[in-house]
Each structure stands twice: as structure tokens, then as C-alpha cells.
Amino acid sequence: MKHTFIFLLGAFFLACGQPPQQKAEPKAAGSSPNPENFDWLLGKWKRLNENARKETFEHWQKIRAVEYAGIGFSMQDGDTIAQEILRLRKADGQWDLIVTLSAGQEPVTFRVTRYGEHTFTCENPENDFPQKITYWEAEGKLRASVSNPEMEIPFVFGPLTE
């Protein structure tokens, strides 16, 4: 299952560039990151520089102040070939990114560990790949990176124009 997650998430994202410098929230003992909001994620995004005959998308909406819902999917020749459900939510004062690849599979939770304006990083060192996911918005594009200590895969999405 983890290898499938690696493949699908790796295939899902492709971008260029590096995330902007992030700042750690000033921490008191036992405190955790608490970004004000992630509204910069909202909208429909299309992956740029995708392989021929394939298109990949991410759609994000705000459910409430402490929850965002996303869906990522890839299509080839008009058929959906990969899909993931994304949920960014705050519970007990902590933001988490929860990724579910398909029905019947256990979701994988990544804890938000750093944030800045229009950027966040979440981590799960127990997962094979990725162990770290970073999202950021720059120059009107949604960018992401998935990585572990051995490998990093960067991605870029542009706004979907319908």
C-alpha cells in the first residue's frame, strides 16, 4: 500500500522551484503550528508540464474555518487513472493533512510542522514516501513538493481556466 501511495503521489505532482523560506511558529512548551488559514489553496488547479495525453488536477474548497477539502485526480485519454482525497483540518489545536488514495485504503496523516504566509509543510516520518509534503503559492501558481531524505519530487499547478 505504501508503494502505491509513493507511485500515485509522485505521479500526481511535478513542478519546479523551491518553496519560500518558512518560519516556525514561536513555540511555547507543547504548542503546535496554527496558521490562520489556507485560503490561498482554494480553487481549481491544473498541473503544468504534464506528460502527453495525461492531465492532473487539484480542486480545493473551504468547508469551515478549521477544515479544507481537496481532491486530486489524473486523467489519461478521458479516463480517471488516479485519485486522492485530501483533507486539511484542525483538531485539538493542531492542523493535519489527511490523504486517502482510494476507497478501502487507510488514510495517511501528515502533521503540519511549519508554516508561513502562503506556505506550509507537513510531515509523517513513519511513512515510506513521502515523509514530507510542502505546499506554497508563488506568482499565481500552486506549488508542492513531496520528499523523504533520499528523494524529492517538485510540482507546479496553474489556475484552471474553464
Helix coverage percent of residues?
A: under 10%
Could you tell me the mean pLDDT?
81
CATH architecture: Beta Barrel
CATH superfamily: Calycin beta-barrel core domain
CATH fold field value:
Lipocalin
Order of SSEs: HEEEEEEEEEE
Which secondary-structure class do the elements indicate?
Answer: mainly beta
> How many strands, what sense, and barrel or not for the largest sheet?
10 strands, antiparallel, barrel
Structure characteristics:
disordered N terminus, mainly beta, about 160 residues, ten-stranded antiparallel β-barrel, Lipocalin
How would you describe this structure to a colleague?
- The protein has 162 residues and is mainly β.
- It has one domain (2-20, 34-155): Beta Barrel (Lipocalin).
- 7% of the residues lie in helices and 52% in strands.
- It is built from one helix and ten strands, in the order H-E-E-E-E-E-E-E-E-E-E.
- The protein has one helix at 2-12, and strands spanning 43-47, 54-64, 67-76, 79-91, 94-100, 108-116, 119-123, 132-138, 141-148, 151-159.
- The protein has a ten-stranded antiparallel β-barrel.
- A hairpin with a 2-residue loop joins strand 8 (132-138) and strand 9 (141-148).
- It is globular, with a radius of gyration of 15 Å.
